[in-house]
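Researcher: I'd like a structural prediction for the single chain below. Treat it as a standalone chain; there are no partners to consider.
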Amino acid sequence: MGFFDFFKDAGKKLLGKGDDNVAVKNEIEAHNKTMPIEGLDVVVDGDTVILKGTAKSAADRAKAALIAGNIEGITKVDAEGVSLEDEAEIMDMYYEIQKGDTLWKVADIYYKDGSRYPEIVEANLEVIKDADKIYPGQMIRIPNFTA
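Model: Treating it as a single chain, here is the predicted structure.
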C-alpha cells in the first residue's frame, strides 16, 4: 500500500513557513531513531506529499506516511516510492479517528479488548504524543491486527 488519505484541516502546522519539502522531511527525520528511512526524499506538491527512499519495514514506511499526513494542509501521501528491505512483510490496518473516539474504544473495536490501547499508542508515537489527545481526521496505524 502506497497511498494514504488524510483530513486536510487537521494536524501539525508546518506548511507555508519556508521550504515545505524541507519542513516535512525534517519532521519525518526527527523520528529517525525509531523509524529510519534511508535516502529519504520528500516532495510537497500542493496538498500531496511524495516520499521516496528505503524503509527497513512496512511499519517504518507507514510511520513516515502518517507523520507527513498528519500535517495540516496535507490530504494525500504517496509512499509508493518508499521501497522495503523485506517486501514480503505484512501491512497493518489504518484507522481515521472519528469525533468521540478514544484509543480505548478503537482498541475495543479492533482487538475486542480496550485495555490493549497502549499497543496503538506505541505504534504511533510519532503522531500520538498523549493518549488523551487525539483528534478527528487523524490517521493512526493499528498494529498486530488479525481479522
